[in-house]
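Z., the sequence and structure:
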Amino acid sequence: MVFPFDLQHRRDCQSKHAQRSHRIRSLTAYHGPFSVLEREILQKPIQELVQDVQNSATQPIDVLKTYGKVALKAHESTNCLTEVMLESAEGWLKEGSINLKGPLAGIPVSLKDSLHVAGYDSCIGYSMHTNKPVFSPMARTLNDLTYFTRSIVEMKPWNYDYTVHPIPWRHDVEKEFLEKKKLRVGIMRTDGVVDPSPACLRAVEMVEDALRREGHEIVEVDLPHLREILRVASLALNSDGCLTYSSFLRPGEWVDAGAAQLSYLASMWRPTRYLYYLWVKYVRRDALWADLVRDFRPQSAFEAWKLVSQREKIRLAWFDWWEAAEVDFLVTPPNATPAVPHDGMGEAVSSCGYTFMFNLLDYSAGVLPVTHVDKNLDQLPKDFKLSRLNGVARGAYKLYDATAMHGLPVGVQVVGRRLEEEKVLSLMQRVEDALGDDKYELLEID
């Protein structure tokens, strides 16, 4: 739907943009270069900052302004902020409503806008959710990530959120895997659908070499149902034919290119989809892509329960595999390629197997940056041909360009079993320690 039926959508977007711009302009204290004190604050681990705030050695307003400056600087480059709450946060400090003796005393956090904060919108990108105010942590360093996650669990969130498992932080597990002398490490080099790009594979190999030098046992793994996982996860996630997220769209409102691609596939007329499936399978001879698109449509209740049954069979197979392999953890690429260009997910939307599979399995996983794309080391082989790839891999590799991506961060994924967050964080620390001087260099704030 186009003009004139998209007027309300346009008005709300313009209103929201204007509101955000006004809030940012009014924060005069958050602009300008970083002071010596602010640089010192940024270099401190959050555990040390918390202690300084609790002991009144550092003022919480200084911490807020420092990280507020970083947030605005990031926004200048990436347009990442939807709601700017810094002025409200200053007010919360002045009125004394902030607990400055707790385990995260004085530490600012950013929230995904699917989480509700009183007085602010939680629009998750839909214009119809603007002007109607209503846990997967990331941190700059691994040390901060561990401290933050531990602190959240030690607050006993199950007492105020019924969805949280009532499992206290297991310090013994954390300590065990920080100190275990010899680890057994499974290396997952591919998800069976899209082989990792040279940059992403190099990061895995750097970690493999580092762990081997430390004397740990490296195991080549043969994992079950890799391609089946992508099929089951894709159909289960989109079992409504993408109708739920589409239902929030107003006339004229656009969506992410990847979401648009999924909606297009799901809404194809059934005979057309079947003809497309036959063409992909027998003319293009791409059985994997054909298998994905054949049933990509709204599923009946009966079909949805069949997917649940298939998921549980996959989980059982992985449980049996892990028991037999006796590995402490897996090292995998987190994605087949580094970050793709803006709007690139229209091509690469189905290339998500390295994370998708662990969502389906409900495993604990953490991503650790290791290195950067190097245009001299990470070029595709001279004999590489896009036409040889399956449909999923082709979408991902259309966007891979080591020269254009030079300098982008590349990491590895550390994977444990279900409800093993303490263990995974400890093993991420072991990986970072093993890398030594080769570990990831943080970006400068200037």
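The first helix runs from residue 7 to 25. Residues 11 and 127 are 9 Å apart (CA to CA).

Let me know what you think.
H.
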